Amino acid sequence: MSLREESVQRAVGSGRYELNRRDFLRGATVFALLSAAQYPLTAANTQPADAWPQFRGNYNNTGVSPSQLSAELKLLWTHDAGDIVESSAAIANNTVYVGTGKSALIAVDLQGGKLKWSYKTAEAVGESSPAVGGGLVFVGDLSGVFHAVDAATGKGIWSYKTDGEVKSSPVIVGDRVLIGSYDGALYCFNARDGKTMWKFKTENYVHCTPSVADGVAYIAGCDEVFRGIRISDGREVLRMPGIGNTASSPALVGNLAYFGNFSNEVLGLNLRTRRRAWVYMHRQRQFPFYSSPAFAEGRIVLGGRDKMTHCINATTGKAVWTFTTRARVESSPAIAGGRVYVGSNDGRFYVLDLAKGTKLWEFNAGGAVSASPAIANGRVVVGDQNGKLYCFG
Hints:
This protein has helices at residues 3-13, 21-33, and strands at 75-80, 90-92, 95-100, 104-109, 115-120, 131-133, 136-140, 145-150, 156-161, 171-173, 176-180, 185-190, 196-201, 211-213, 216-220, 225-230, 236-241, 251-253, 256-260, 266-270, 275-280, 294-296, 299-303, 308-313, 319-324, 334-336, 339-343, 348-353, 359-364, 374-376, 379-383, 388-392. The protein is mainly beta. It has a single domain (17-392), classed as 7 Propeller (Methylamine Dehydrogenase, Chain H). The strands form 8 sheets. The chain has a 4-stranded antiparallel β-sheet with strand order 1-32-31-30, with no helix packed on it. It is globular. The relative contact order is 0.15.
């Protein structure tokens, strides 16, 4: 163990993390009494192969798809979105939904890449990625407006103006939808009519996408606090300070949450013991982690601003492999069939072997690929900063 890790362990052991056990247990009890129809939770291992309905693919933010992709990918189509694509696509009902820098949310046919409709947003859509459910698609824009749009027609249903940019991606939980804002709040709305159910205020930007389990939304914050917010009433039931400034969206696997931070660390938090399970930091190259992690086969995979994709043992926090690109890796990896799919700001889209980290394939898009791939129906879709949306299969 390094001196830095020892100091971390001493800080953890001093009781810096707090959990309101009574509130947590009460929240679990309340949620257990709610019907599954009202709050249907999608576990990572039950995600359908024909859909990628939100950022990271599922409620646990694990970035994994059961869809089977061709061993030899081919470019099937390209769609010109007209401006930068930093938003990561969602896929549902054979339709690709993605936000663009042209101040638009667009719907594109998954099979042929033809535009179905375009919805005008107040300003450009940055990194906020659509979520699709209940016949609606949700996304935020850089003016702070959160939009609900009819998924079939592209007609606006309702919108809400927050007091800061929206770069967080929405999560739909039953009849509710969650979104973070740079005004420092996590919002919960009635998905159908936009009524504000509750608003939880933090001390800094809410950039990440919540990870959801057992009626609780977990967020890693720019205020250096990891929180669990009960979805039924917006009450904080888990609070773990000292995580570092964090934009990465947590991947939740059992009692463990994984994410990177701007202190050049990847953290594994044990939510049951309220302690850090481990801290990973590359020995030679210490740069921030902006990318959100994927989890599969006992491994955590995420990109770093050190130009590398990192694979970490999820139990021990030890490095398994790294793969070096030519620029920052801010794209969040997706995993399917033992392969890692990830973009780089070097303008390339890579396929890596999950076990070894070796490169299996690459595509030169030309523009930086900071958006994250979406996988469904045997296809993978990703956009670049030149405004192109690519589909491979």
